[in-house]
From TrEMBL:
This is TetR family transcriptional regulator. The lineage of its organism: Bacteria, Bacillati, Bacillota, Bacilli, Bacillales. Gene3D superfamilies: Tetracycline Repressor, domain 2 (1.10.357.10). Coiled coil: none annotated. Residues 2-62 form the HTH tetR-type domain. Keywords: DNA-binding, Repressor. It comes from Aquisalibacillus elongatus. Residues 25-44 bind DNA. It holds the Pfam family TetR_N. The keyword Repressor applies. It comes from the Bacteria.
Length: 278
């Protein structure tokens, strides 16, 4: 991230936490960051647009910190350590989080889209850890277990932001994983019927990726735009079928890879569809 952009983001976080979102002006932000006002508008269209980068900044920071815990070989210890890092991060940034709750910061479309992506990645993180800790026997219940783990984390997070002093953070991560044991081993032992018939649309990664690729095609591709859109439409139609034809999808994916503007997104879509099919 460019130095000036990061300065603006970190200064705005500091001011928003202290004064509130609505009471902080762009001029105050650039004064705090010690940059020219024009620099702000080089990176952001508005304060609302700035919030997109702040959300992204926080998410990337916490994920980098949590990934550091993966050096541990024991999946259970990794999960406990990641929870410890996460809750400590919330404590360290509590003033800003309280501001978000208090000020009702308006959500522009980009923020809403980012929050959806964040929810998807959080859900994937939960499932990845659950499978690592409990093995293949939990797979029939991985979605239910992920929902329960996310619910527990969310509830304790809300409590922590409001009144951290009443929680023992040294005990909490291991306590949560112990409760996850009760849930997961209980489901595997009783062989309960799962309550989840299908994943909601928000957790189907390919939908969001297809939408993103379509937007890029519309804005960045001039030659053969119609052919690119047709190929994307074919993929979208095929993945909704009960028995999608992989040969058709693969053919359209290869066609879309020819366009540099969407190459990385198409690669991600390809990997996502392969994972969903496994």
């Amino acid at each position: 991230m460019q130095d000036k952009k990061q300065q603006i983001i970190e200064s705005s976080i500091k001011l928003f936490a202290k004064k509130g979102f609505h009471s902080t002006s762009v001029q105050q932000i650039v004064n705090e960051a010690n940059v020219a006002k024009g620099s702000f508008y080089n990176y952001f269209e508005s304060k609302e647009d700035l919030m997109v980068s702040i959300y992204d900044y926080y998410f990337v920071t916490i994920m980098e910190k949590m990934n550091e815990a993966k050096v541990e070989s024991n999946p259970r210890k990794v999960l406990i350590k990641q929870l410890d890092i996460y809750f400590q991060f919330l404590v360290d940034h509590k003033p800003f989080l309280i501001m978000l709750l208090r000020d009702q910061v308006p959500l522009v479309d980009d923020v809403e889209s980012f929050i959806i992506q964040m929810r998807q990645q959080n859900f994937d993180w939960s499932k990845e850890n659950i499978l690592a800790v409990y093995g293949e026997d939990i797979r029939p219940y991985e979605n239910d277990a992920a929902v329960m783990l996310e619910g527990i984390i969310h509830s304790y997070s809300s409590w922590l932001v409001v009144d951290a002093e009443t929680l023992d953070l040294d005990v909490l991560p291991r306590f949560i994983v112990n409760r996850l044991d009760d849930v997961c081993y209980g489901m595997m032992k009783n062989q309960d019927k799962t309550a989840i018939r299908d994943l909601p649309q928000v957790f189907r990664h390919h939908d969001l990726l297809i939408s993103k690729i379509r937007q890029i095609i519309q804005g960045a591709i001039s030659e053969e735009k119609d052919k690119a859109l047709e190929a994307l439409d074919v993929i979208e139609q095929e993945v909704t079928k009960k028995e999608p034809q992989s040969i058709i999808i693969d053919s359209m994916i290869e066609h879309l890879k020819k366009f540099d503007a969407i190459y990385n997104e198409v690669l991600t879509l390809e990997k996502t569809l392969e994972r969903d099919d496994s």
